[in-house]
Design a protein that fits this description.
Elements lengths: L8 E6 L3 E3 L1 E2 L4 E4 L2 E8 L2 E7 L5 E8 L8 E4 L20 E2 L1 E5 L4 E6 L6 E7 L2 E7 L14 E9 L7 H12 L11 E4 L1 H4 L5 H13 L9 E4 L27 H11 L2 E6 L3 E2 L8 E4 L6 E3 L4 H17 L3 E4 L2 H6 L3 H4 L17 H15 L4 E4 L4 H4 L5 E3 L9 H14 L9 E3 L3 E3 L5 H13 L4 E5 L6 H14 L7 E2 L10 E4 L2 E4 L7 H6 L7
Parallel strand pairs: 15-16, 15-26, 16-17, 17-21, 21-22, 22-23, 23-24, 25-26
Antiparallel strand pairs: 1-2, 1-7, 3-4, 4-5, 5-6, 6-14, 7-13, 8-10, 9-12, 10-11, 11-14, 12-13, 18-20, 19-20, 27-28, 28-29
Helix pairs in contact: 3-4, 5-8, 10-11, 11-12
Length: 536
């Protein structure tokens, strides 16, 4: 499978029906009112769409090239991983967003698109060939391009190198897909209060957290972060979690600028969570794309310049408070109405189009992400529930997996370890890869959390610890200190060694040495430690 020659078939779906395109020139394929230019330059295939009248939803290219050998296939996810990433055989209905790798025992080939595409792209592989799909919808409707030409995507292919390990091939291919990776200025580590507070916090408690996190680090040149997660915003005064704007403090956080200054005085770099597209504010009706059913809050339409200006102002305000890190959340869910694991071949689950139907969902998403990135200034940005391929090169840090847990070990193992292994190739090639926190609570046996801490600290990726200072034991404190010392310095990228045969790798190469982890140990002591149903 080398995507050689021209595609076997090219079809485009408009609002009304599917159209089969026929060659009309050296690089041009047409149907009535539709034209696709396919330009090949080495291992890169560039696609450009013209559709001056018809609204377009989907483009499909098919190569009838049967895969040879006994392949193992690894696909990516639309946004975060959900514990289900794995090498497996050919599954025709399996949707592989953005890119996939094919390992035949000798070499690992890569098929993907360059990051920053103007469409939502995915691949499917069957025993007869490869299908590439570019979703160019604008919300629930076809995009209306008018006179402009859409640069759909740049497809990229790499045949692999003999004897190169699958992990090395994955990292090399990720670097080929992203021309402008963005990393934080220094290694990222510190605290996040979500997995023990779960949205219930205050100015005083955050300062206590900050003092504790600061006390764990002796590094004078790279101080730890302390991230205030959900629960600080004014809408929290009315209850609930993951509320929207306005992004000003609530009654328990009366002065965010003062809090940021006091956090810095304790020796941490302050960080802040927010949800850009949800608000309880009284905004112009035309800004509102729909109302969230559970709260009645407004979900904003980022295709509108005034909405982007409003979000820019909010980001600049939070950075102006003195926060050195911003974590933005829920944009993919708020725009498409579903989580990544249910998207498959239909990313859009909402009936709503965007106000500006001349732009694709991907273009609208990129404009939103650029607004946040530009407005954040020198602050590091974490994208959470954001499209991976559209975040690369714009945000320093990407939450690459779904939430771990401070209540249930199995969730941390399922989400965290799987994410760490199967998206590690994106670390340093796209952004800094954050597989999520250590939730240090009494609900999760320390024997398991200690293993997760060892992997996080030695992996070269961000280390965030969510811990109530009041319950941390002396043994745990010593382990956290050692972990922070490691995480504060640059480290080689951790490599999963047994990822071809398990979804939860236990053998890793960390700092050049093979290290083993006990993710699944069972003993009466562990089972009695917290008998609350975590062993499921």
């Amino acid at each position: 499978m080398i995507l050689s020659g021209e595609p076997s078939a090219i079809v485009i779906r408009t609002e009304e029906k599917w159209h089969t395109l026929s060659r009309s020139g050296a690089d041009r394929w047409e149907a009535a009112g539709l034209a696709l230019t396919i330009e090949r330059n080495g291992n890169v295939i560039s696609l450009e769409l013209e559709a001056p009248v018809l609204p377009v939803r989907t483009i499909k290219l098919r190569w009838n090239e049967a895969p040879a050998g006994n392949l193992l296939i690894l696909g990516d996810h639309w946004e975060r991983g959900y514990g289900d990433l794995e090498w497996r055989g050919i599954v025709p209905e399996r949707v592989m967003p953005w890119y996939f790798l094919a390992h035949d025992g000798l070499r690992t080939a890569g098929y993907g698109v360059k990051t920053g595409a103007n469409s939502l792209c995915y691949w499917q592989l069957d025993s007869d060939g490869i299908t590439f799909t570019a979703d160019v919808t604008s919300g629930s409707r076809g995009v209306c391009l008018g006179a402009r030409t859409l640069a759909v995507a740049h497809i990229i292919y790499d045949p692999g190198t003999p004897s190169e390990t699958p992990f090395a091939a994955a990292r090399r291919f990720c670097a080929m897909m992203c021309d402008n990776p963005l990393m934080p200025k220094q290694p990222v580590y510190g605290g996040n209060n979500w997995y023990y507070a779960y949205g219930e916090s205050s100015h005083r408690e955050i300062l206590e957290d900050s003092r504790f996190i600061s006390s764990l680090s002796s590094n004078k040149l790279n101080r730890p972060y302390m991230v205030i997660d959900d629960g600080w915003q004014s809408a929290k005064d009315h209850g609930g979690t993951c509320n929207g704007g306005p992004w000003i403090g609530n009654s328990k956080f009366p002065d965010m600028e003062r809090l940021a200054g006091e956090m810095k005085e304790t020796g941490v770099k302050p960080g802040l969570w927010f949800r850009p597209l949800l608000t309880t504010e009284n905004v112009p009706a035309q800004w509102i794309r729909y109302k969230e059913a559970s709260t009645g809050s407004s979900v904003l339409d980022p295709s509108m310049p005034d909405v982007l200006a409003h979000i820019r102002e909010s980001v600049e305000r939070m950075v102006g408070y003195g926060f050195d890190m911003l974590k933005h959340d829920f944009t993919t869910y708020d725009m498409l109405g579903q989580w990544g694991f249910t998207m498959k071949s239909k990313p859009h689950a909402l009936p709503n189009a965007f106000h500006d139907r001349s732009k694709t969902t991907a273009e609208i998403t990129l404009a939103l992400y650029r607004t946040i990135a530009e407005a954040s200034g020198q602050a590091d940005v974490i994208g959470c529930n954001t499209f991976s391929h559209l975040s690369a090169g714009l945000f320093e840090i990407q939450r690459t997996g779904d939430d771990t847990s401070g209540r249930w070990w199995e969730r941390t193992r399922y989400m965290g370890v799987n994410t760490m292994a199967f998206r590690m190739a994106q670390h340093g090639t796209f952004y800094s890869h954050d597989a999520d926190c250590l939730g240090l609570t009494k609900d999760v046996p320390w024997a398991y959390n200690r293993e997760w801490l060892r992997l996080l600290a030695g992996s070269g990726t961000p280390l965030f610890v969510s811990a109530d200072p009041a319950i941390v034991t002396k043994e745990q404190e010593l382990a956290l200190r050692a972990a922070f010392e490691l995480a504060a310095e640059p480290l080689p990228v951790g490599e999963p060694l047994d990822w071809l045969r398990t979804t939860c790798p236990s053998r890793w190469k960390l700092a050049g040495e093979e290290t083993s982890f006990q993710w699944n140990e069972v003993s009466a002591e562990l089972l009695d430690e917290k008998d609350n149903g975590w062993w499921v």
